[in-house]
Amino acid sequence: MQILLIHADYLKFEVKQRTPAAEEIRPEQCSGQIDDVLVVFSAAEEADENNIKQVAKNAAVEIFNIAKKVEAQRVAIYPYAHLSSSLASPKTAIKLLDATAEELRGHGLEVHRLPFGWYKAFTISCKGHPLSELSRTITSEAPVAAELVARAAPGKWILLTPEGGEQELNLAEIESCQPLMKNPLLKQYLLSEELGQKPGGEPAHIKLMRRLELVDYEPASDTGHFRFYPNGALIKGLLEDFASQIAAEIGAVRIETPVLYRADEPDIAEQAAKFLQKDYKIRLPNRTLILRFSGDFGLFKMMKNTLMTYKQMPVRVFELSPSYRLEQSGETVGLKRLRAFTMPDIHCFCLDLKQGLEEYERLFEVYVKMVGSMGVEYVVVFRVVEDFYRQNKDFIVRLLQLVKRPALIELLTERKHYWILKHEFQMIDSVGGNAQLSTIQLDLEDSERYDIRYVDERGEKRNCVILHSSIGSIERWIYAILEEAAKAQMAGGVPCLPLWLAPTQVRIVPLASRHLDFCNKIAEALEKNQIRVDIDDREESVSKKVRDAEREWVPYIIVIGDKELGSEKIPVRVRGEKGLKLLTMEELSAEIKQLTKGMPFRPLAMNRLLSLRPIFFGG
Questions:
Q1: What is the pLDDT of residue 148?
Q2: Which of 40, 123, 156, 448 could join 12 in a cystine, given CB atoms 3.0 to 4.6 angstroms apart?
């Protein structure tokens, strides 16, 4: 069943002409106006005929949940065959529409079911808020929520310092918390994420990613899928290399698993049901497949059949997981939230809680160093079951001493998820929005749920503790780095990329064509030291070449003329610094190598000579 939902000020309709499939209707059904209504344009499909009751139930749950979010008490079900090319029979469609309407009435909504099989004129006034236009695919396989379950009682918030001091937070009166007022990023996180004061402006990275010729929208694909130009692909590849490097340093083995899975696998169906239909489905004649929305699908299938013994624990597994989430179109924002992304997942399988906490602390320290190398400012947020927090507060304080900053702690009255403890490094972007970067989750349930066990010293199989962790999606890191640069510029600074990620690290500008040979010799010397260097040999003025290099955020610019041909030391313009630095090529190489020490390297993404490069954006 395909549905398109419009939250409207009103829907006005009038029946015009019947079709051969028209149902009989009463005079009062021929026209009308319904005010303040959630209009559900609906098309029943062939696949719905096998289980009309379950499809109707799932549709009603989804429609009811959306009605709650937009605070609509009134629903109009509008038969609309144009939503599908694989329509069910008229008899099935009428049964499904009636069953859905009845389910919705059971949820306490006022329901209007418009006539089926009639041509109708209609006028609709969409309210225009972010949730006013949504679409959904409803099936019988993985209900978004088989029942409406009451949510657990809300948690409470505290501010915890590295010294162990606690300050209670009332989200309705955050201004009264003085320690919070001293940390504007923590305050902004609460305003954005917890209090719903979302920014109205467009994050700066959306323009920057295109202007810097890194990433762009792909109009021939779905929303939230992007094309990466050569320099963008270079940065993405370097970040993937960095994630792989971190995994190797902590001793994780690397795996690869499929991106497509059968929707009728019980554990996958259960997981998809909890994910509120954010999964892409591919329907084949005899089965439905799901594009994975996380790396857990294949990993847990693999680990269920893996023999692990107590001597081998903890077992660490790494995967760069291409993942796909059918986010609502209004929720996709540049590289912040996508429908296709790359997630570097590290899962650690531990003997028990003691080893799980030791592994958690080790990963936390690794991720603190990792985030520091990105040059992105962030806040720390923990979510933890309160009883567990009281028993392990010293452990969390020890983590904060590693990160050297206070953290927001949400204390949960009971376990709502598979994890009992998790933290997030959250960044605040140029318009005040927040986004999760890295995370670690302490999972005490999934070992039993997915039958992942190890053999103890007595030869018996036992459940293990699982740590889910990631440095964060590759694409979101590009978003975070560009947003941090934009924030620096807004504060009066000079925007730049981390040196190890700069597509061109050194730009050489010859004053004339006779200087080109010497420029190439400098470039070759720098390249031997794994430095990305290019030459602007275009027929442009020197001032324009320098301006273009600055506009591309090139970290080092060298202008070569007659004077420099015979000099050992050459004047170097360093981004963000005043004046010129006189450096030998050995000194320049040493400086760059020191600033990029320990980070991955890849060569230039395009030709060394700018005159030989195509212009991918704006050309």
A1: 34
A2: 123
